[in-house]
Amino acid sequence: MFEGRVVAGAVNGAPTLDTSRAVCCIGAVKTRTIMAGCWLLAVSLVLIGCPKSAPDPNVEKPADQPAPPGEASGGSGLVDLEKARALLKDNKFEDLLGVFEPDQVDGMTPEERGVLVDLFHEAALNLKNRLKNVSFSSMYCERGLMLAPRHQPLLRLQILNYLHPEMKLFGAAEELAEGLLAVDAESAENQLLRGKAAFEQGEYDVAGVWLRKAARAGRRKRGPVIEEACKLLDLALGKQQEIESALSMTRELEAMMARAKKRGVKLPIAREPRPEDAADAADLPGGSVTLYVTRGCGYCRKARSLLERMNVKFEEKDIEKDQSALMEMMRYVEDAGIQVVGVPVLRIGNRMVVGYNPQRIKSLVSKIR
User: Fold this and answer.
1) Is residue 240 exposed (0-12), middle (13-18) or buried (19+ Cβ within 10 Å)?
2) Could you say which DSSP state residue 343 is in?
3) Taking CA atoms, which of 75, 165, 194, 308 is between 20 and 30 Å from 172?
4) 81-245 maps to which CATH number?
5) Architecture of the domain whose range is 251-368
6) What is the pLDDT of residues 17-65, one digit of tens each?
7) Could you tell me the residue ranges of all domains in the chain?
8) For strand 5-7 and strand 16-18, is the pairing parallel, antiparallel, or unpaired?
């Protein structure tokens, strides 16, 4: 390597080396080279650390569309729960009723059914209590019970709907009340509703049984349910006393009934079976109506008048004049497990009514028409 630089003024015109500055020039060249390398390295590091300005064509762009309703949470995708919530919030009850079809229930997840049941219960409450639309509330209860047949709040609300004066579906209320007790027979509220259903049908003895059970809970805890049960129990007992006082019984009739009861298991009904008996034995629909009376019985006349006003076709039998009619009546009441202490006695379909009980008579007659 060179130790100096070529300068003019050499001997005989030949160049000579200036060794006094040679090392310094070479060092400057090395310094510039190192600085340029460091600058390139810094630029490279900056470029590596920055994100790419252009997308990689080989990488698939994520979809912007949301997942189908219910899919993100592992749902069935059959129902849009967010839409259902929004419809309830906006009081769009007609639209909310159509968020699912009955044939979709089995395909839903338990979580979806649970959310919908709560939404439908809230809608039914709003319709009944705030908008006073009992029939529409009943429709929501019916749909909700498709999702959860043992849902107690919905069962209770539907029973109250059926008992409402606008509907008066007392038989349906009684059936639901039995189902409610199958879920929880120890609930005072459930016992109260069973008693209410019986009371509205004139079954005051049955009402008294369940209302007493509900009222007993008051020994442990008082509240609106217990207070209502106690009030209704007093009414049921009063109604039962009225019916008992509406029975006509004479000493002669009492003696006749005692003799008939003693001989009843041996003596057949003194008539040929009629075609309608088969329907009576099966169930109420299509059944006949028989009124058992005695002479001079005021409440028997009231029962006859009630049936006539209702345009009911019935057969009237005087058990004082007709021994076979007395035996027939006694057989029916024995089969029903009822103790007869007077007349009138009515057989409506395959049900027995002892005493003048207009509410019970109307209820049973409505079922056989």
Assistant:
1) middle
2) B
3) 308
4) 1.25.40.10
5) 3-Layer(aba) Sandwich (3.40)
6) 444 444 444 444 444 545 555 554 554 544 445 444 455 555 454 444 5
7) 5-47, 81-245, 251-368
8) antiparallel
